[in-house]
């Protein structure tokens, strides 16, 4: 099963102005078992591309096919986690996850839905805090609830839009580890697509890193494989010979793109 992005173009038009192209001719295939990260400067279309895969928007041209089905809108086979955890403030963490599961999976029995809710709130260490509302927990805990909510609907494809960008370094590190553990062992998720600004995060998590180019030609500049075997440990990964080489390669590409746009 794959995510296939075929010749995708996307532009936005404001009244009285010319169309602004945010994606031009994107071609990319993400295979089953892959974790792919997207990096690039602000405005290069990373989040827009993720929204298109999630079915939150439609391309002007081209198509996106996930597991053999053309994407025409949101679906339970794809789940998203945003930088802002987007939990409903009046509901408890438990109710937030449960409502998402019931909405996404109306065909599941109540028992199965409740089991999935408990399974993933427990997996991210929040079961004992399940009756608290988002405003009663830290930002890191709220984002863990958002991750649990995404996994609990049983998606085959997980879409992450800078989910840890607003967190402190220690919380971010812990959530990165939890994410990899959930993806690798407990979940039904086969593919992960993640937007990030962090080179270290991309190298730590991804199998391939898609470097996006700046306007006026916002597209895939190049794709960098990460030749570091799993499992990866944040404390030791920097000593791997490929780490510094990959980081330098990514930094050079981003610097060159920034210089060209100046």
Brief characterization of the structure:
38% of the residues lie in helices and 23% in strands. It has eight helices and ten strands. Helix 2 (93-104) packs parallel to helix 4, helix 3 (110-123) packs antiparallel against helix 4 (139-152) and helix 4 (139-152) runs parallel beside helix 5.
Secondary-structure map:
Elements: E1 3-12, E2 20-30, E3 35-39, H1 46-54, E4 61-66, E5 69-70, E6 78-82, H2 93-104, H3 110-123, H4 139-152, E7 157-161, H5 169-186, E8 191-195, H6 199-205, E9 208-212, E10 220-225, H7 234-237, H8 241-261
Parallel strand pairs: 3-8, 3-9, 6-7, 7-8
Antiparallel strand pairs: 1-2, 1-4, 4-5, 9-10
Helix pairs in contact: 2-3, 2-4, 3-4, 4-5
Could you walk me through the main structural features you see in this protein, from its secondary elements to its overall organization?
The protein is an alpha/beta fold and 262 residues long. It is built from eight helices and ten strands. The strands form two sheets. Strands 6-7-8-3-9-10 form a six-stranded mixed beta sheet, with helices on both faces. A hairpin with a 2-residue loop joins strand 4 (61-66) and strand 5. Helix 2 (93-104) crosses helix 3 and helix 3 runs antiparallel to helix 4 (139-152). The longest helix has 21 residues, at 241-261. The protein is globular and about 50 Å long. The relative contact order is 0.17.
């Amino acid at each position: 099963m794959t995510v296939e992005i075929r010749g995708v173009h996307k532009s936005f038009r404001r009244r009285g102005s010319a169309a602004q192209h945010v994606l031009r001719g994107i071609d990319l295939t993400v295979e089953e078992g892959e974790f792919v990260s997207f990096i690039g400067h602000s405005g290069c279309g990373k989040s827009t591309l993720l929204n298109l895969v999630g079915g939150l928007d439609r391309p002007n041209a081209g198509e996106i096919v996930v597991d053999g089905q053309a994407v025409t809108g949101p679906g339970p086979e794809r789940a998203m986690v945003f930088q802002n955890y987007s939990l409903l403030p009046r509901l408890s963490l438990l109710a937030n996850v449960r409502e998402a599961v019931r909405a996404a999976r109306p065909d599941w029995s109540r028992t199965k839905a409740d089991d999935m809710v408990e399974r993933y709130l427990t997996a991210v260490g929040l079961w004992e805090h399940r009756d608290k509302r988002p405003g009663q927990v830290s930002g890191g805990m709220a984002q863990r609830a958002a991750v649990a909510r995404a996994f609990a609907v049983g998606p085959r494809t997980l879409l992450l839009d800078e989910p840890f960008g607003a967190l402190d370094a220690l919380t971010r590190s812990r959530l990165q580890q939890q994410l990899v553990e959930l993806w690798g062992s407990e979940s039904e998720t086969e593919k992960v697509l993640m937007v990030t600004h962090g080179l270290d995060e991309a190298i730590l998590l991804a199998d391939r890193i898609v470097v996006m180019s700046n306007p006026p030609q916002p597209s895939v500049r190049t794709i960098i494989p990460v030749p570091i075997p799993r499992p990866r440990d944040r404390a030791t990964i920097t000593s791997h010979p490929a780490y510094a080489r990959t980081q330098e390669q990514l930094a050079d590409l981003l610097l060159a793109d920034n210089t060209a746009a100046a």
